[in-house]
Amino acid sequence: MTEKYEVIVVGGGTAGLSAALVLGRARRRTLVVDACEPRNAPAAHMHGYLSRDGMPPAEFLAVGREEIARYGVELRRGRVVDAVRDAHGEFEVTLAEGAALHARRLVVATGLKDELPTVPGVAERFGHDVLHCPYCHGWEVRDRAFGVLASTPMSVHQALMVSQWSKDVTLFLHTVAEDELATEDLRRLAAAGVAVVPGEVAELVVDDDRLTGVRLADGTAHDRSVLFVAPRPVPQIGLFERLGAELNETPFGSYPVVDERGQTTVPGLWAAGNAGGFAEQVVNAASRGYRAGAAINGELLMTDLDAIARV
Ligand SMILES: Cc1cc2nc3c(=O)[nH]c(=O)nc-3n(C[C@H](O)[C@H](O)[C@H](O)COP(=O)(O)OP(=O)(O)OC[C@H]3O[C@@H](n4cnc5c(N)ncnc54)[C@H](O)[C@@H]3O)c2cc1C
Description:
It is a single chain. The chain is built from eight helices and 19 strands. By secondary structure, the protein is of the alpha/beta class. It has helices spanning 14-25, 57-70, 122-125, 134-137, 155-162, 183-192, 238-242, 282-310; strands spanning 3-10, 30-34, 74-77, 80-85, 91-95, 100-108, 112-115, 130-131, 146-149, 169-172, 195-197, 201-207, 210-216, 221-223, 226-228, 232-235, 247-250, 253-256, 269-271. The mean pLDDT is 97. The protein binds flavin-adenine dinucleotide (FAD).
């Protein structure tokens, strides 16, 4: 038998839980389905969220799950594998284990995946001393010996940014040729005191579970205790595609076209958090989820009142 909800939220990270909190408090029958693989899981601590700075990400989400449960929101561990819109513009949702669910509105808060450079050691140390975001972890590693692994000429921007946190920065050009760097970039790198090292990085050097350097393909080793990388963001947009939502191509992947509340071009289908945009940090993802939840509640209320008024 198909279980019926007013709202199903796909993804129980910060964005999904925030939407669910608002919907639960608005007395909407809400289900969160979560595959439990939040993007920041590799990091021991979360930063930049006022009042929760330094909290372990898993603890933050555990508190969120407790909070939504207080308002009767159901949480199911699982993966949504399909969704279709029925003749009434509502949603039939299928879980991996086969369950069929029905929702009047659907929030997709499935986040994004970080595709890391394939240099040996990078994946193992990501979130520890291989980092991508100075706002998330720059303070914790300030003044240490930074490396930046270039993957495109845009990595110059990352090298310049991290120079705010350490004056000892080396940009390893890796797969980028020296002549791909713009004259203005070279000037800025020199002004920031960033050293530029050409040549492919072959592997990370790790000692006693700590990054100690990088080794180039020519065998030379450079002492570094932190390496910044630029993962390729892979937004989890399968459900938007399946439901026919319009997508926006960006240099950071394709994301659904949404209005300021997160409503996609498909009526009743909403996006929140990194599923709707590359740049959302935890606090922004929470805000996006909140906005979507509140907007959906208001929209459901007016839809139902209009239906009564028409009778
Ligand atoms: C290493 C690292 C450290 C970071 N540190 C910080 C930091 O310190 N501060 C900060 O502000 N930001 C940080 N970020 C960014 C932060 O992770 C994101 O801003 C945040 O996770 C976005 O929340 P979200 O809810 O959109 O997505 P997520 O947190 O990724 O949650 C999405 C959820 O949806 C689930 N899901 C996906 N597909 C499905 C499906 N089909 N069915 C059911 N569930 C599904 C996933 O399993 C996951 O649980 C960090 C990122 C990384 C990679």
